[in-house]
Amino acid sequence: MKRLILASASPRRHELLSLTLLPFETYPSTLEEKMDLSLTPSQLVESLAEQKAEDVFTYKPDCVVLGADTIVSFHNNRLGKPKNADEAADMLRMLSGQTHEVYTGVCLLDQEKKVVFSVKTEVTFYTLDEKTISWYINTGEPFDKAGSYGIQGHGSLLVEKIQGDYFNVVGLPISKVVRSLKDFGFLFTESVTQTE
């Protein structure tokens, strides 16, 4: 079986891929991404995931490479990581009481084939007052998160409901990923050796 390479430095993606119990290595892409903002959010994350996977594949051509990218979109506007507390507060006010979308693009690549897809999850926030926004910013959590929140952390307290894959919001739609890995010879149901 070929080696599986995760082309991401994200600890959240590493943790999610570890749930499969499949052996894998991490080799982050260092490529400067090309952002074509004329693309739809789903097309954009697929393009970014593909760029990352293809970059790492040049260094690991005998492996199966997994690239991924996640964006937060609100009214077709891409929300990145906030530069400071004021920008984080502005984003949280914008998302307050509203529904936004989280898209994750995935690219799986080896010498024989390439599979690219994206998954969308809708996230609805409670209405947030200024005290709640200030409290959340003071946790320090918004600053390395697209959209200024992390659903797997303190940001979970801001979320009223989601429609779709929760793990997609965290950064990797892991159930769909492992099913796509079957096409590359990886079977997660055989990743643990059972003994009597």
Short description:
The chain is α/β, with parallel strands linked by helices and 196 residues long. The chain is built from 6 helices and 7 strands, in the order βαβαββαββαβαα.
Features:
196 residues; alpha/beta; 7-stranded mixed sheet; 6 helices; 7 strands
Shape: elongated
The largest β sheet comes out as: 7 strands, mixed
Number of strands: 7
Structural class: alpha/beta
Averaged pLDDT:
94
Low-pLDDT regions: none
The tally of helices reads 6
CA-to-CA gap between the ends?
A: 25 Å
Radius of gyration based on Cα positions:
18 Å
Order of helices and strands: EHEHEEHEEHEHH
Bin the helical content.
25-40%
- Sheet-strand content, in percent, reads 15-25%
Describe the protein's architecture and organization.
The chain is of the alpha/beta class. It contains 6 helices and 7 strands; from the N terminus they run βαβαββαββαβαα. A hairpin with a 4-residue loop joins strand 5 (99-109) and strand 6 (114-125). The longest helix is centred in the N-terminal third of the chain and has 17 residues, at 41-57.
Q: Topology, pairings included?
A:
Blueprint: E1 4-6, H1 11-18, E2 25-26, H2 41-57, E3 64-74, E4 77-79, H3 85-95, E5 99-109, E6 114-125, H4 130-138, E7 159-163, H5 166-170, H6 174-181
Parallel strand pairs: 1-2, 1-3
Antiparallel strand pairs: 3-4, 3-5, 5-6, 6-7
Helix pairs in contact: 3-4
